[in-house]
Structure formats: structure tokens, C-alpha cells
Design brief:
Number of strands: 10
Strand order of the largest sheet: 5-4-9-3-10
Distance between the termini: 149 Å
Number of helices: 9
Shape: globular
Radius of gyration: 54 Å
Helix content: 40-55%
Structural class: alpha+beta
Order of helices and strands: EEHHHHHHEHEEEEEEHHE
Length: 316
């Protein structure tokens, strides 16, 4: 074996002289100052080194590639343009406002009903009486509507219209006379007796009782006391506390105990006065007493002088 060969351990001699490229020969660079390809070629398995650019950063080609890549990525990630919001029409705005007002009204009504101490503390029997009172009012209003519709039909019935008109006018005159207190009235009703138990009853209690009876469907009323003539109660009747006790009704002085005769549905009016926390409970709480007597035929005979109107005129 020569000096230029050495044993590699595989049985084949390894040359010790300068190595030659095993691949195809590269074409030489025609430039006179070009570097040797063998000196600039990187070794196999060694990463390629990037030469810094003129300003010490990445080469110009790499910077352009990175900028293009960033622009492409930003373009892909940009969200699509949001569509223009449609303007709400005036009808939509009005509907929304009405719904909001309706919701507010319902909430207030529910809160008022749920926080009513009178109804929450009432017994089952009292609630049944209140419900019966409301049903009676509804039936009475429905009956009035039916009568008015029948009167309208008769007045528009042609040949019988004049006769029906006269009858209707007479009936309305009688009703208005009873309401105005210029005509006596009779019918089923109730007598309410109120005593103060040794104390004078304030005029406000009597007024509350009259208002409750009106709300329960009273059609005619009169009040009388221990001293003094009865007084007809109409829409313009006033109640005042008398000097040294007693009561003044439309200028007439009365003393207790008092008796109110009223024409209407007895059960409905009695229920209205016996509502928990109402008139009867207030008078009994002050030491007085309230009693009721149903009358199949109650007579309201006291009359009120006709009122002369000074300012009101009918609309033509």
C-alpha cells in the first residue's frame, strides 16, 4: 500500500490527496473576480446562512417576500363590511312606544292590586260579597244598554216612531224627576240606621255612606233624624257638621240617630256598606252602630225644590 492511501476499516483504501467533486462538474463563472464554487458551497446538512443587507437587516428580497405575505394575511383576516342598518319607520317607533306604555300600565296595575291591604286582609266571605256586588253592577249596566238599544229601535221604526217617542219622553221625564228629587218614588230597597253611641257622627261619615249607596245602584234616597223633617238626597245635596253636634243637610238641621231610606237592590247596597274597612266598619270603630232592614216596598216621599239653572245651558 502506498503512502497516499490509508486503511478505512472497510477494506477499501481512502485517498489522502485533495478531494474531487463526485457530482457533475459545475460550469465556471465567466466573471474574473467570481469566488470559487467549492469555497462558497455549503457543506451537506449545514443550514444556509443569510447575508445581511446593506442596512444590517434582512436582504431586500426577503423583506419584499415578508411584506407580501403580511399584506395577503391582513387582506384575508379583514372582516366583511357591515350592511347598513335599516332606519326604523315612524309606524314601528309608534308601535314600540305603545307596547312600552302598555307594559308599564300592566306592571303598575299588578303592583297596585297586589299591595291593596283591604283585599289582602279580606275574608273569603267578604271577597264573595264584593264579587257579587260587581256582578250586580255589570248586570244593571247591561240592562240599561239593552233598554237604550230597544228605545232607539222603536224611535226608528217608521209609523210608530212618533208614539214611541212620546212614550219614551214621558218615561225619561219621570226618571229625571226621581233623580232630581221633584217626584216621589217607591220600590224595593233598604233602610240604614246609623247611631253614634253617645257621640256625634261627623258629616263625612254620612257622606261616605251616601256615596257607597250611589255606587251600589241607589236610585232614590232620603235621610231623616231624631229632630227635623226628612231631606231628599240628590246630586247637589251637601252635608255639614252642625254647631254643638248634629248635622245640616241642604240647610236643614238634624240630630242623630239617622235613618237613610234608599231604593235599589238591597243585597248589593248592604254588601257595599259592609266592605272591610268601609263605612260600617269605620262607624263601628268610632263607637257607633250601623243596622240594616230590607224593605220590599220602600217609599221616598221627601221632595226637593226644583233647581233654577243660572249658568248651564243645553247644547243645541
Amino acid at each position: 500500500m502506498s503512502d497516499e492511501q490509508s486503511d478505512t476499516g472497510t477494506g477499501w483504501p481512502e485517498p489522502t490527496g485533495p478531494s474531487r467533486p463526485t457530482g457533475p462538474a459545475a460550469e465556471p463563472d465567466p466573471r474574473p473576480d467570481a469566488p470559487d464554487p467549492d469555497e462558497t458551497a455549503p457543506l451537506r446538512g449545514e443550514p444556509r446562512r443569510e447575508e445581511p443587507g446593506p442596512d444590517g437587516g434582512r436582504p431586500d428580497g426577503d423583506e419584499a417576500t415578508v411584506d407580501l405575505t403580511r399584506q395577503a394575511t391582513a387582506g384575508d383576516a379583514a372582516p366583511p363590511a357591515a350592511p347598513a342598518r335599516k332606519r326604523m319607520s315612524s309606524a314601528s317607533v309608534m308601535i314600540a312606544v305603545l307596547l312600552a306604555l302598555l307594559g308599564f300600565t300592566l306592571v303598575v296595575q299588578l303592583k297596585t292590586t297586589s299591595t291593596d291591604p283591604t283585599l289582602s286582609a279580606a275574608r273569603q266571605e267578604d271577597l264573595v260579597r264584593i264579587l257579587s256586588d260587581l256582578d250586580a253592577r255589570e248586570n244593571r249596566l247591561r240592562q240599561d244598554i239593552a233598554e237604550l238599544e230597544e228605545s232607539q229601535r222603536q224611535l226608528a221604526s217608521g209609523a210608530q216612531g212618533r208614539e214611541a217617542a212620546l212614550e219614551e219622553a214621558a218615561r225619561r221625564a219621570d226618571e229625571l224627576g226621581i233623580l232630581a228629587g221633584t217626584l216621589p218614588a217607591t220600590g224595593p230597597g233598604l233602610t240604614v240606621r246609623i247611631s253614634g253611641g253617645g257621640k256625634s257622627i261627623p258629616a263625612s261619615r254620612i257622606l261616605d255612606a251616601v256615596q257607597e249607596l250611589r255606587g251600589a245602584g241607589a236610585e232614590a234616597m232620603q235621610i231623616s233624624g231624631g229632630v227635623g223633617s226628612p231631606a231628599r238626597i240628590i246630586a247637589s245635596t251637601y252635608f255639614l257638621d252642625g254647631e254643638g253636634g248634629g248635622l245640616v243637610v241642604d240647610g236643614r238641621r238634624m240630630t242623630g240617630p239617622y235613618s237613610i231610606t234608599v231604593i235599589g237592590d238591597p243585597a248589593t247596597m248592604r254588601t257595599a256598606l259592609n266592605i272591610p274597612g268601609g263605612v260600617a266598619a269605620s262607624i263601628r270603630g268610632d263607637g257607633g252602630n250601623v243596622s240594616f232592614e230590607d224593605r220590599e216596598v220602600a217609599e221616598v216621599s221627601a221632595l226637593h225644590e226644583p233647581i233654577t239653572l243660572e249658568h248651564a245651558r243645553p247644547v243645541s
